[in-house]
Each structure stands twice: as C-alpha cells, then as structure tokens.
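Help needed: design a sequence for this.
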C-alpha cells in the first residue's frame, strides 16, 4: 500500500521512510510498528503507534511542528536506522531504533552532527542484529543540525 501511494521505501527495512513523528515522505501519511520495520518487542510497536497517532492528530489540526527534513546517514556497524530522517528543529527528544550489521562486543553507538560534532554516545557490552538498539537523543542536542550520522564502532 505504501508503494502504491507513492511513499518512498527503505530498501533495507522494506518499510516506509519516516521522520521522528513517523510521518512518511508523503505529507499527512504516518506509519509505525512492523510496517516500518520488524521490532523485537511489542512495547516498541505500541510506543511508535502512540507517537504516530498523536502526530497524525496534530497534523489534522494543523499543529504538527514544521521544519527542515535532515536525512540520517547510517554509518559503519549498522544495518538499519529508523527514523531515516528528522524534521528539525526537534521539539521533543527523538528515539532512534537501530540494528547492528553483525554481532559485536564492547561497541559504542555514536550520533554525530555536522563537522563530526558528538551529539550522543552509548556504550553497549553486546550488539546483535536480532535485538533493537534504542537511543533517546535530547532535542537540544539536535538544534541547528544540517547533517546527522549514526554509527556503531568497536571499543569503548
């Protein structure tokens, strides 16, 4: 259905590309849960559905925060990152859902902005492709960003 509607799909997740509000590349169309990517926990599906529903209601009322779409670049060590873009400036914290490209131990998830500026770091004792890596990025850290790269690198 997403493809028939003209919504851009992510070739790795086979789901629609979305922003932090779960709005697709077609304004006014929202997607969440396993239609965007397969989740390992139903709790994440429920959280995404609530977020998408809230955003759709705000959109219908003309109150969804507008901004500039900034793509999220997937760096080394990751197979997928959702959302694939952010609408900035962010008005609330943004949750990223990532999957490792291969099993690894003692890795660091990094989110960098323009010029390689560190926006977020999270140490992980283990990363598995079958388990979601979840990171909540403070809205303040995303202010004035024009580029965002997420990577999973070896070492702490």
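Sure. Designed sequence:
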């Amino acid at each position: 259905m997403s493809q028939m509607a003209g919504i851009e799909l992510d070739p790795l997740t086979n789901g629609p590309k979305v922003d932090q509000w779960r709005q697709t590349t077609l304004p006014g169309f929202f997607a969440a849960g396993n239609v965007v990517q397969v989740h390992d926990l139903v709790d994440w599906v429920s959280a995404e559905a609530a977020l998408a529903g809230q955003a759709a209601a705000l959109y219908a009322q003309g109150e969804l925060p507008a901004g500039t779409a900034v793509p999220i670049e997937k760096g080394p060590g990751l197979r997928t990152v959702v959302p694939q873009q952010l609408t900035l400036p962010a008005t609330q914290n943004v949750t990223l859902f990532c999957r490792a490209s291969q099993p690894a131990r003692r890795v660091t998830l990094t989110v960098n902005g323009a010029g390689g500026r560190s926006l977020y770091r999270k140490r992980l004792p283990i990363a598995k492709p079958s388990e979601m890596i979840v990171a909540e990025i403070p809205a303040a850290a995303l202010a004035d960003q024009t580029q965002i790269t997420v990577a999973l690198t070896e070492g702490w």
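DSSP finds one helix and eight strands in the chain.
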